[in-house]
Each structure stands twice: as structure tokens, then as C-alpha cells.
Design goal:
The complex is a heterodimer. Chain A is an alpha+beta fold. Chain A is 55% helix and 17% strand. Chain B has twelve helices and 14 strands. Classes of the chains: A alpha+beta, B alpha+beta. Chains A and B meet through helix 2, helix 9 and helix 10 of A and helix 2, strand 3, strand 4 and helix 8 of B.
Amino acid sequence: MKWLPLLWTALRRKPTRTVLTLLSITVAFLLVGIMSGLNASFARLIEESRADRIVVTARYGVWFPIAYVDQIERLGGVENIVPAAFMDASYQEPTNRLFIRMTDTRVQTVRPEFNIEPGLLAELERIQDGLIVSQSLADRLRVAVGDRVPLETEQPYQDGSRNWAFNVLAVVPDSERFAQGFSIGNFRYLNEGRADGRRNDIHEIALLIDNPERAGAMAGAIEQLFANSPTPVIATPERTLIENNIRGVLDIQFFTYAVSAASLFMILFLTANVMAQSVRERIPEFAVMKTVGFSDRIVGVLVLLETGVLCLLGAALGLLLADAFPALASALLPGRPVPIMTPGVIGFAIGSAVLLAILSGAPAAWRVKRLSVADALAGR
Amino acid sequence: MRSLRQIIAVTAVNISGLPQRLWSSLVIVVGMACVVGVLLSMLSFSVGLARAIESAADPGRAIVVRNGARDEFGQAIKREAAIAILNAPGMRLDADRQPIASTENVNLVPVTRRDGQLPVRMILRGVGPKAFALRPEFRLVSGRMFRTGTHELIAGTAAQAQFEKLAIGDKVIMPDGEWEIVGSFETRGDLIEGQLLGDIETVLASRRFNGYGSVIVRLESPDQFADFAGALKANPSLDVDVQRQTDFYKQSAGQFTTFYTTVAYLLGCIIGVGALFGTVNIMHSAVAARTREIATLRALGYGAAPVAISVLAEALLLALAGALIGAAVAWLLFNGNRNSYGGFVVFDLAVTPRLFLIGMGWALGIALLGGALPAIRAARLPVATALRAT
């Protein structure tokens, strides 16, 4: 790379301008990184969802009978099945919220992503008011093993209040699937303590089936089974469920690409302008370079390389910042998917940076390439 | 007075020179257009959503729900409790001396959203006989009203536009069989217009419920709220929350929109910082290009402040132009687009005048920050050296 010193001199010519341009490009690529990282994060959510898992919920309300577990099992083809009810609770502050999955030991086989030791779940089975908390949630709530935590919920307790006290049995490592933490309690505690007249009602059944290709048919069979009961259900293969939830509110792909495109368009103009101006100021230099034997093509390429260095450096810095962004995002918006850096995201950013460099450097490079030495030296 | 004249003169000279710096000026215009376009497009989502929810509220109405509840689902308000609530003071009475009030509950019904054939669950609201006196904004636009005691529903026009198979004559499956849609209605674009309405007692029977999710009442006047709420709170047999409908819906809107508003401002800040650096960059070059002009003005006796202000004015003017373009693009692309939050709320994206002002403020703020350093630099140019500049 014998051109490196030349590129370096060119970029150092007006350091303020170079630094400011670089900062703009960095910020634009921070946004590109966050946006495509978010996209990748949703894509991974869908990809990691299991084709052989079916989720059953109530069709018209939120509660349905736990007896459905046995009835679904009798359909055949069910490997494992587990019921769950959810408690929306807060600890000390109303904003200090947690979402407890009240379930039983079978959760480990149906949802192995929690990755909890069987021994721990057996202990939870014995200790009704036990609570398993993941590390990040424990940190957020500031609770430790052995703590007795009174939680404010929407669920009436038999003593007339809405307070449920839990004992923190264990703090377990976080799961990749639940980046914001999770907590698991014993369904029997809810079922025997509740005073809302909904004993034996649950929110969800999750089941694994032996043949993933039959997921659609199996879901249909489950819906059919309860179609004429007072509480019909919706059964959906997990992947479809997640896809629908994501699509239901916002077209994530459109949104992320649109924001990326807007920020790239903004710096496309800026970079093209900066390069044009920089080249205009250096016309005599380029004329001299051509006089001493640099070919038309080489000077053009040099200008393009100069733009390329700016854009790629900005892209790299932007991605580095974007990689640190999830920490901020999860602090500001707990419980939401955070952007992730995948090879796809990095590839997309580098591709955009190269395209940006070519588009914004081309007019300046073209001008230098076509430069007539005689005119330039004469100051025309 | 003299300095004002100077400011005007210098700024005019400056602005008249803009065409010579056309391309670099365009950078600021395009940058602000992108920033404001992105910010307003994203905010149009949460603003439209909040508008649909909040416009369903009336300060003259109060809503009673189970203590601690944030929605109208379920059957926690038993019939005796509802009777006690309807005997409380402060409600407006109709010609028959009956309170203008409606016992209601909401249920979810699976439907298909037209956009992307997405399976979602929309809201079916059971309403009492006085629900329409309670909501003067309600207007039946075609078909007829449902009859009490029958499996009949009416559908909001927004719901019909957003979800499939809700036309008059279509059937909706409920736990106890098919319910026919017999009419369609409007409620001035609020969230009720995205729902199905049916007779409360028949709906409860269908769900095998024996209580209501909410009781909504018309107050004698908005200031009667304290009397009404006080009477309910004083009744030990009632475990309920009473709120003005405006407060209740404001809270619900917050639950839906806080996340999207935060995201919009967060991304707006990031892209704004990019534009900020761009503005500093361009204004810096603009000052450099005008070095001799500025020095000449200073030599002629013009003050430093008018020169600095002229630089700021240029940045503000360009930013304003960009912001207008960005707001116009956001308005053209998104204003009025129908959307729905899953099946829960059907709403139109909205680029409102308030959003327009936020966009302008955002752009002017960035321009002010970005123009400040170059403006100071322009004011401090050493006249003698600058005059010799090429």
C-alpha cells in the first residue's frame, strides 16, 4: 500500500472537516447497526422458535381449565406437556415489575431453554411459595437467595389482599432466549391461594409433539377438541405465534430499513459534498500529481479510496457503538428485544459503507480523473 | 436599532450568497428533512394510537372497574355491585329517572386482519341498553341495531375496514354459536369504532359470566365526579376503582404508546446527532468560504454580533426548509394510514399540528447547536489576516 501516506495526508489536510464528517458517518452507522441488529434479533427469535412446540391459549378470554392438559395428552403424539399461569407482579415500586411463570416440574422438558437443574425444580415442587429468579432479574429487583419478597399483584389472595409473598429459592443464570430475565413459581401456590374464583384455571399450555411436520394438524386437532366447550382455545405452532406477534404491531423490516435508508441518504449528501469541496481545493495538487506521472485512473482511484477510508472507518466505529447500545436499550426499555450483532448485520453495514463510498466519491473522482493538467496548472 | 439594521443587512448579504453554496446548503436541508421525516413518521404511530384511545373518553363520563384493574376484561363486578353503583349520586338521569349508564365487558374474538392475512383477536364489547345515550358520538350508519336477547352484533366501520368478514350478514363465532352482524356504526374514529358491540346480558351468557368488567356512567356534570367516586369508595361492599374516563383512557394509551414514543425520540436523538455534526461541518465551511466577505464587513465597521447572528440565521433558515420538507414527506406517506395494534386498537397514523411543531423545534434546535461554534468562529475572525485570505 504505497498510497497510504498520500491518503493520510489528504485526510489530514483539514482535520476538523475530516473528524466532523467521520462523526456524522459514525452516527449514521450506529443507527444502521441498531436497526439491522434489531431486525436480526427478531429474525433469531423466529429462527430459534421450535417447530415441534405448540402453544395453547384461551380463545375468547385469557383463562381456561387445567383439565385440558390431560385431554390434550390423550390425543396421542404428545411428547411432553406443561401448563402455566402468569402473575404480573411488582416489587416495592409499581415500576419494578416482573412476570412470574407459575408452572410445575414439567417446564424443564417442554421449555429446556430455561436450563434449570431438575433438582431445583423438584425443590420448587416441595416449597410452594418458592421462586426461581434469573440473574439479571435478581439484580434489577435487588433480591438474593433466601429473601422473602412480598409482591403486589393483580391477583386477589385468600387473605383479601393482592399481596403474595415468595421465597427466593435460587438465582439461576440468564437464558439467551429471555435476555431480560425470567422468574418461575409453583402453580399450586397460585391455585390454592387465589381468591378470584378461578381455581384450576391457567393461561397457557405448551406441548412438544413427536412429529414437527404435524404441528399444523395437531394444532387444528386441539382446537377441534374444545370447539364446543364453554372455553374454546387457540392452538398455534410456536413459530407461527411468534411471527404473528411480531407482525401484529409494526412491520419491523420496513421500519428498520426505512430508518437505515434515511440516515444513509443524509450522509450520502454530506460525504459527496465534503469530497467535492476537498477535491476542489486540491485541484493544483492533482495537476502536479498527473504531471509527475500519476495516471488519470490512479488519481481517480485515490479519491475513491479516500472516501472509502472515511466511510469504512465510520461504519466500524458506528458498529462498535451499536454493539454497546443494547446495554442502554435494556436500561431504557426493559423487557424488549435488543439489537444483536450478527455476521449478517456486519456484512450489511460494510456493504452499505462501500456503496456509500462509491456513490459519494464518484463525482469527485470523476472530476479529478477528467482534469486537464494544462488548465489546472494555469488556474482555469 | 443600529445593530438590528446591521443584522438584517449582513443576513441579507449572506442569504443572497446561498445559491453559490447551493450544494453544501442542500446538505443541511436534506439532513434536517431526514431527521424530521424519521422522527415524525415514528411519532405518527404513537400519536395516532393515543388519539384513537383518548378520543373515546369524555370528561363527563366515569368508569368503574375492579380495584386495581387497568382494563375492562372479566366479570369481577357482580350484579349486586352493579346495582349499588347505579344507585350512587352524581349521575345524570334520563326522562324515566334512570341513570344514563351502561354495564359492559370486553371479550376477545379471533379475526383475520386484512393486512397480511394476520390472525389477531379483536374486541367484542357487551353494552347495556343506555350505552348509546351514554355515547352521543355513536351513529348507526347502515343496517339496524342488534336486538336484546339475540345473537346479533353491530360492527364499527374501522373494524370492518381493518378485519375480514365483518360485513352486515357475516357471522362471528362465539362460544355458544354464531352471532350475526346486523349493522355498522361510527364513533368519530375512536377505539370503539374498531370493536364489535352486542347486548351485554347475551354476551355474558355466551361466556357463562355472571358479572361485568366495567360500569360506565354519565355524570350530572363533570364536577360531580367527586360525589360519585366518594359514594362508591364509602361503600364497604364495593371493591372498585372509579376514574374519570379521560384518566382511564390516558393511562391505557400510555401503556400502549410509551414504548413507541421512547423509541421514536431515542432514534430521533441519534439521527439528530448525525445531522448536528453535519451542520457544524457545513457551516464551518460556509464561514471559511466567506472569510473575506466577513472581514470586509468587519473592516467597514459592522459588529461581531451581527456577523455571528447572520451565520446562525443561515443555519436556521436551511434547517427550517429541511424540516418543512421532512414533515411534508412524513405527512404524505403516513398521515391517515390505517393501522391496528394487533386486533386491540384500530387507528390512523397521525402527523398532527403538534407533531409538526415538534419537528420544527427539533430541527431548529439542531441548527442552533450546530451553528453556534461556526458563528463564534466567524465573529472572532482576525480582520487583518482574514482580509488577506485567498
